[in-house]
Design a protein that fits this description.
alpha/beta, 7 strands, 7-stranded mixed β-sheet, binds adenosine-5'-triphosphate, 5 helices, binds magnesium ion, single chain
């Protein structure tokens, strides 16, 4: 897998800011997009999905952690949003197949947000955003990577992230999702 450059590195100071970053990405999503959220427990993945959901026309209060249910489906409004959490899968690839989750992880006319998606990495759509969260005390460093996403969308997103005024340029971030 080639090392890829981050399209944005953003540091948030509050949960509301993290949700706002999710809203910006949510506005850019189109059917077939997968958002893979990577980061430790409590890093802010579910909170970010609340922001995504708000931009897709859903009530963020309806977004709860799918840790135990594995998948939540938000249907109607603008675009169906699937929200998955693979944390509890022991043998993720086998269970993804057994549960028939491939359609969520390679969405066609919906958008999927998956927490702990790296556990089933080979099953993830190659076209996706990887969003990596690092916990820095009460701050979160959020690094966004785009895989097989059209350059024009990337540029529009970068402008939208910049408008938030939270972006760190140079030095910070780096690395790549594993
Ligand atoms: N800057 C910040 N951004 C996001 N969350 C923050 C921030 N500061 C504190 N928090 C807190 O961190 C927690 C993030 O919880 P969240 O459920 O979104 O994590 P998660 O990554 O989904 O965890 P899990 O892997 O358990 O599903 C919340 O309690 C939130 O209030
Ligand atoms: Mg979560």
């Amino acid at each position: 897998m080639a090392v890829q450059d981050a399209i944005a590195t953003i540091v948030t100071e509050t949960p509301a800011e993290t949700e706002a970053v999710g809203r910006v990405l949510g506005r850019a999503l189109v059917p077939g997009d997968l958002v893979n959220l990577q980061g430790d427990l409590g890093a802010g993945k579910t909170l970010f999905v609340k922001g995504l959901a708000a931009s897709l026309g859903y009530d963020p209060h309806d977004v709860q952690s799918p840790t135990f249910t594995l998948v939540h489906e938000h249907r109607g409004e603008r675009l169906t949003l699937y929200h998955l959490d693979l944390y509890r899968l022991d043998d993720a690839l086998a269970e993804i197949e057994a549960l028939g989750f491939e359609e969520y992880l390679e969405p066609e006319d919906a958008v999927t947000a998956v927490e702990w998606g790296e556990r089933g990495e080979p099953a993830l759509s190659r076209r996706r955003f990887d969003v990596v969260f690092e916990v820095l005390g009460s701050r979160r460093r959020i690094t966004v990577y785009a895989r097989e996403i059209e350059q024009q969308r990337i540029e529009e997103l970068q402008q939208a992230f910049s408008k938030l005024g939270l972006e760190r340029t140079g030095g910070a971030g780096g690395g790549r999702p594993t």
